[in-house]
Fold this sequence. Notes:
47% of the residues lie in helices and 18% in strands. By secondary structure, it is α+β, with helices and mostly antiparallel strands. The chain has a five-stranded antiparallel β-sheet with strand order 7-3-10-9-8, with helices on both faces. A three-stranded antiparallel β-sheet has the order 4-5-6, covered by helices on one side.
Amino acid sequence: MSSPHEPELSERARTLLRALVRRYISDGKPVGSRILAREARVPVSAATVRNVMADLEEQGYLASPHTSAGRVPTERGLRFYVDCLLQVQPMESETVERLRRRLSRDREVGSEGLADSASNLLSRLTHLAGVVTLPRREWAVLRHIEFLPLSGQRVLAILVINEREVQNRVIQTDRELSEAELQQIANYLNSEFAGLEVATVRDRLVAAMHADRRRIDALMRSAAEVGGKAFAPERDAEGYVMAGQTNLMELAELSDVERLRRLFEAFTRKRDILHVLDRCASAEGVQIFIGQEAGYEVFDGLSLVTARYAVEGEPAGVLGVIGPTRMPYDRIIPVVDVTARLLGAALNSSR
């Protein structure tokens, strides 16, 4: 983020920096002094513009990629532009209404389906990559569990969650278990873990398996195996959905094969992106990470614009757009902000 100790820029410097960033965002090319004077519409000579640009370069706001080839904004320059010079363009009411209708229509597909729709909508509206963390699930407390043997090594797990919710899951075990063994496992799980949150049950089973691997008997090993699979989440454990990654390949500054390889490795691993999004979950409003502000090398040359969405007044997840640092922030910011609000409203009404 911008530092409060940065030097104060004159009105002329601000005007020229704003015009340069806008031009650079528009075509991605270095901006020369003559073009900048025309873009900024300031009554000064090209020589004066060059002097101001040289000052801005010395202060770290601009850079010269080639000799006499004009200037481009640095990450510091883009941050100053976003924080101090940007004028956000509100979304058209018709577009907002289309978003609302689409998310309202998709309420029936559940929270994960809504997150997927929001991700695709972000991608479609911005022509960049949209990403949405999946809503946090409500606490699920185990009341009772039963196991029924099926053919081969398949077992039907019947879980009673919270008050009266019943979930049936077919799981695959490493060996065929008899009905008597399954009954013993169920008795053990019910006596030890009934009344605990499901995620806690699984964590305790796994911890017990590792801590007592050499000492536990066959029943405990089977309980850890069968119980761990029975309580495994049904969704993607990494916790987000993404759409529009291929949009990034069409941008000239991301056409480098090695950078794309590292970028899509990050998409596949999900870890770095999810960690950045988690940092946004506790922050209010729209958050903008420019380049290496995200703290990961893979985001070099990229920006991430995020906003959290809420369900029943409580933060539920984060959505955002990933694109080049020269993304049109004035247009992307309201898209992210409005989509977050509409997703939260759709999730509230689907409950």
